[in-house]
Every structure is written in C-alpha cells, then in structure tokens.
Amino acid sequence: MVVVLMVAEKPSLARSLAEILSKKQCRRRKSDCSACDVYEFEGIFPPGGGGVRVTFKMTSVCGHVMSLDFQPQYNKWEQIDPVDLFDAETMKKESMPNLRIPHFLRNEGKGVDYLVLWLDCDKEGENICFEA
C-alpha cells in the first residue's frame, strides 16, 4: 500500500490535523521521540478525484530541528572581539538533542512514498520544511 508521511510544526497541530482528516478514526502510537506521537489512518491521496487508497502517517517536529552556532572557540563572549564573528565558521547541530528529531524523522520516513509538510508559510516555517 502507498504510504504518505505528513509532518506538522508541532505535536498539537499534528494531533488536530490527524483527527480532522481521519474524522477521528486515527490510531495513535508512541514513537522513539518522546515528544512526537504518530497518528495513522487510511484515506485517499491525493484527495478529490482519481486518488488511490493510502496509509497516512501524521507526526510533527517541535519547532526547529537544527540550530546554528559558532565553533566552541568563539563562545567565550567576553574574550572575543565581535568583529571576528563576522568571518567565524559556524556549525549546525540538533536544536534539542534529547528528542533525537532527525533520527525520528529518518525512521518514520523509511518506505514512504510521499512527504507532505504542514508548516507555516513564513521564513521560520520554510526553514523547518528544509530541515525536515
């Protein structure tokens, strides 16, 4: 069966969307991310005419997946000239390492046929879409 993974910006939105789209017929299961449940239900994709029967998996992230930081040697603010920060290297790291969101998304994404992102249409939402 075709599987559609849908990712919302926050857990409460994932729950609400899953309940609405499934007419409250979704099944909730815990995931390996303590903050993000997965809601599963059957439906037609794409909606409207000519779609096929699919399994939907609705889940979320918890805001930003990744964050940007300076290299450790630049994190001693009282010892660094602020001008040096303009050319300083940065690094990406998990925003909330204890939640393991990248690992969680990789696991949930295995074997899916489509990805639908339910994120705000602004700079923050666009950034989270890219991260997801």
TrEMBL record:
- Please report a single Pfam family linked to this protein: Toprim
What SUPFAM superfamilies does the database record attribute to this sequence?
A: Prokaryotic type I DNA topoisomerase (SSF56712)
Q: Which UniProt keywords apply?
A: DNA-binding, Isomerase, Topoisomerase
Q: What's a single GO BP term from this record? A: DNA topological change
Report the superkingdom from the record: Eukaryota
Enzyme Commission number(s) from the entry = 5.6.2.1
Q: Which reaction does it catalyse?
A: ATP-independent breakage of single-stranded DNA, followed by passage and rejoining
- InterPro entries according to UniProt: Topo_IA, Topo_IA_core_domain, TOPRIM_dom, TOPRIM_TopoIII
What family classification does the UniProt entry report for this protein? Belongs to the type IA topoisomerase family.
GO CC, one annotated term: nucleus
Summary of the function given for this chain in its UniProt record: Introduces a single-strand break via transesterification at a target site in duplex DNA. Releases the supercoiling and torsional tension of DNA introduced during the DNA replication and transcription by transiently cleaving and rejoining one strand of the DNA duplex. The scissile phosphodiester is attacked by the catalytic tyrosine of the enzyme, resulting in the formation of a DNA-(5'-phosphotyrosyl)-enzyme intermediate and the expulsion of a 3'-OH DNA strand.
Q: Name one GO molecular function term.
A: DNA topoisomerase type I (single strand cut, ATP-independent) activity
Lineage summary: Eukaryota, Metazoa, Porifera, Demospongiae, Heteroscleromorpha
> What is the protein name for this chain?
DNA topoisomerase
Mark the transmembrane ranges.
none
Gene3D superfamilies, per this entry? 3.40.50.140
- Annotated ranges, domain Toprim: 3-132
PANTHER family reported for this sequence: DNA TOPOISOMERASE 3-BETA-1, PROKARYOTIC DNA TOPOISOMERASE
